[in-house]
């Protein structure tokens, strides 16, 4: 099942011409520079703007085609904007209840309590909206959207108005949502780390056109796209906690790249998580080195070498487990190692972060 959008429009110097087909599950990240048309696409999906000739379908439901147009309030959407837009005269409870009341009881898929628990807003329920931090407000906004049992959740740069600390605070909640709620989401952002943390599928936009659309894991490592050259470029993969080493406070995980060790033992054995390995944290050696403090090492083959600025090289590796890894190293080191396509090497990851905890 998929979500489809066909949209062509002109607005002065800006023109948009897109034909999208995205999965009706998981998170689709919509990324592109300012003015590339991301919000325009979300608004068309939501039915907030009615563009002539547009087609919007979700699964086997038609939201817009020809003269047919389903009004926004009948599309059963959750929409979360940059600014949370909560009702300031209502408490947190009142705001989330408002979301729940938007849907008839028979159609309610997510109970009020579930929406509240999923975003961890129980302790805030009796507070006034004015007494919340920016991050808390945004969590309440997502809980309110979720309480309306949406068929689709649209998130338009939900973290962009927050400072870095608040962003770090809310991302784990959004990831939990991603894992547990089962509502498809379209997530607009400029941020590569947010995309890496959240998206299963990715649509890259530029000047009103789709540059690429596909699995996030594949697009994040494509050296011909700008994402891989971003300072925060990273690969993200699913992993399962396989064992704890209580004596050293470590957990071992099975990932497509091979076994991974992370600090902390809070995660239950068997739990599925996502791990992120940043390109700048991966170094390359020709052989397995003894006497290193680095715990995570993967046997791999060099698949691609691409210039990354004047002094650096982006190396795409394929581990023996079949997973892609990115390493950003200096040109100097690449030459010193004599790196070539097809060469067997060892990738050492200085740090592996857990995205879902
Ligand atoms: N109501 C409007 N009237 C005229 N032009 C508009 C209107 N809304 C947006 N635009 C123009 O349409 C283009 C796409 O805007 P859109 O908001 O979709 O971009 P965006 O990718 O979401 O940008 P940002 O990341 O800055 O939010 C821009 O050139 C913008 O100036």
UniProtKB/TrEMBL annotation:
Highest taxon, organism lineage: Bacteria
Source organism per UniProt: Sulfuriroseicoccus oceanibius
Annotated Mop domain residues: 291-357
Molecular-function GO terms, alphabetical: ABC-type transporter activity; ATP binding; ATP hydrolysis activity; molybdate ion transmembrane transporter activity
Sequence ranges assigned to domain ABC transporter in this UniProt record: 5-232
Matching SUPFAM superfamilies: MOP-like, P-loop containing nucleoside triphosphate hydrolases
Pfam families: ABC_tran, TOBE
Protein name: Molybdenum ABC transporter ATP-binding protein
């Amino acid at each position: 099942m998929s979500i489809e959008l066909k949209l062509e429009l002109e607005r002065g110097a800006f023109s948009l011409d897109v034909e999208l087909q995205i999965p009706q599950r998981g998170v689709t990240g919509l990324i592109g520079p300012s003015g590339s048309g991301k919000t325009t696409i979300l608004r068309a999906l939501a039915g907030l703007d009615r563009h002539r000739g547009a087609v919007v379908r979700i699964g086997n439901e038609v939201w817009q085609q020809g003269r047919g147009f389903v009004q926004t309030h009948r599309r059963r959407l959750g929409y979360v904007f940059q600014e949370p837009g909560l009702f300031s005269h209502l408490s947190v409870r009142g705001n989330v209840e408002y979301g729940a009341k938007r849907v008839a009881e028979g159609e309610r898929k997510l109970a009020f309590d579930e929406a509240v628990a999923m975003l961890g807003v129980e302790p805030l329920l009796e507070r006034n909206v004015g007494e919340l931090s920016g991050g808390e407000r945004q969590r309440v906004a997502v809980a309110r959207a979720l309480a309306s049992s949406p068929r689709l959740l649209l998130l338009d740069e939900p973290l962009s108005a927050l400072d870095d600390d608040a962003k770090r605070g809310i991302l784990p909640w959004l990831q939990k949502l991603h894992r547990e709620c089962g509502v498809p989401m379209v997530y607009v952002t400029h941020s590569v780390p947010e995309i890496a943390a959240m998206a299963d599928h990715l649509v890259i936009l530029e000047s009103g056109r789709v540059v690429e659309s596909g699995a996030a894991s594949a697009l994040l490592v494509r050296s011909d796209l700008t994402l891989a050259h971003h300072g925060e470029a990273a690969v993200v993969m699913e992993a399962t906690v396989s064992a704890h080493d209580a004596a050293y406070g470590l957990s071992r995980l099975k990932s497509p790249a091979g076994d991974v060790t992370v600090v902390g033992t809070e995660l239950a054995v068997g739990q599925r998580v996502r791990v992120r390995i940043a390109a700048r944290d991966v170094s390359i050696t020709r052989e397995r080195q003894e006497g290193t403090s680095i715990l995570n090492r993967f046997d791999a083959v060099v698949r691609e070498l691409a210039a990354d600025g004047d002094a650096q090289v982006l190396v795409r590796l394929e581990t023996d487990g079949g997973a892609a890894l990115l390493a950003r190293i200096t040109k100097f080191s690449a030459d010193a190692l004599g790196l070539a396509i097809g060469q067997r090497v060892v990738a050492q990851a200085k740090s592996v972060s857990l995205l879902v905890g």
